[in-house]
Amino acid sequence: MTRTGSVHSARTAAARTLFAARGPVPPHRTDRPVALVTGASSGIGAATARRFATGGWQLVVSGQDRRRLADTAAGTSAVMLPADLAAPGGPGRLARSALRATGRIDVLVAGAGIGWAGPFVTMPPADIDRVLTVDLNATLHLVREVLPAMVTAGRGRIVLVGSVAGCVGVREEAVYSAAKAGVAAFAEALRQELRGTGVGVTLVVPGPVDTAFFARRGTPYRRSRPRLTTPDRVAAEVWHAVRRGRDDVHVPGWLTLPGRVRGLAPGVYRRLLNRFG
Questions:
Q1: Total domain count for the chain?
Q2: How far apart are CA 133 and CA 165, in angstroms?
Q3: What is the pTM of this model?
Q4: Average model confidence (pLDDT) across the chain
Q5: For the domain that residue 83 is a member of, what is the CATH number?
Q6: 61, 76, 86, 177: which has the highest count of C-beta atoms within 10 A?
Q7: Cβ neighbours of residue 104 under 8 Å, at least 6 residues apart?
Q8: Is the pLDDT reported for residue 109 higher than 90?
Q9: Of residues 52, 116, 176, 269, which has the active-site annotation?
Q10: What was the pLDDT predicted at 261?
Q11: Whole-angstrom Cα distance, residue 71 to residue 82?
């Protein structure tokens, strides 16, 4: 074995030892691959859950609205686990319940999220904390709880739902942009740590999506560009990304352009952002 191969093997073994240190994985209770989807009460999460069900996967769906969660699970064999991921210990309880119910988690789609729009100086401190807790902190804690079983099994994929707001920064969405930028950085860092473990990380970067997200945040979407896309389109991209092992997905695809312009011509990027951002 070459020195590079030896280093790679040692890194893999160390990663598996680290992530497996929290205890044994329960015996598998289903032969079908299992997808745990959060935020599955509506929007991208619900559409993604339905897409995986169509593909023959066993679902574990989580959200806060029990009625809407039941609508998502209708007609499937999905296990429903209502949860508030922002509550202390919420991510850990959800991960343990999912593993007890199915014995395995092959894919985590972290789709839970909230927004807030308005001038940053008018944003109540409690809302700052809640956006960061739901969109960033809870996501990190849930991934931390799910990863040990995946690494021990030597397979799995973490799908993190970011936003174009985390790539370019959107005026009057400063905290939401900060949270989603954090998710993007976390995805890249975690991907490097998991090399050689058999576990992959996909970052999905959608533009504005036609869901109840804007109604819940209290401010409708008023921009002419980018246009609203559908949650089903995002769900289809998540499905293809998992099947193909893709690291990054933008929906629609042209959303990769702002990042490229930023890297090649920062001045042009800033002028465009000042006009359209």
A1: 1
A2: 17
A3: 0.82
A4: 85
A5: 3.40.50.720
A6: 61
A7: 25, 28, 29, 30, 33, 34, 149, 153
A8: yes
A9: 176
A10: 56
A11: 13
Domain of residue 67, residue span: 3-276
- Token digits of residue 108: 């985590």
**Whole-angstrom Cα Rg for the chain:** 19
In three-state secondary structure terms, 248 is: strand
Task: Write the pLDDT tens digit of every residue in 12-50.
Answer: 555 554 444 444 344 446 689 999 999 999 999 999 999
Q: Which of 204, 247, 264, 257 is nearest to 229 (CA)?
A: 204
Q: Taking residues 198-222, what's their average pLDDT?
A: 82
Give the type of residue at 184: A
Backbone φ and ψ for 149, nearest 5 degrees, come out as -65, -40
Known active-site residue 221: no
Sequential DSSP letters for 70-117:
HHHHTTS-PEE----TTSTTHHHHHHHHHHHHHS--SEEEE-------
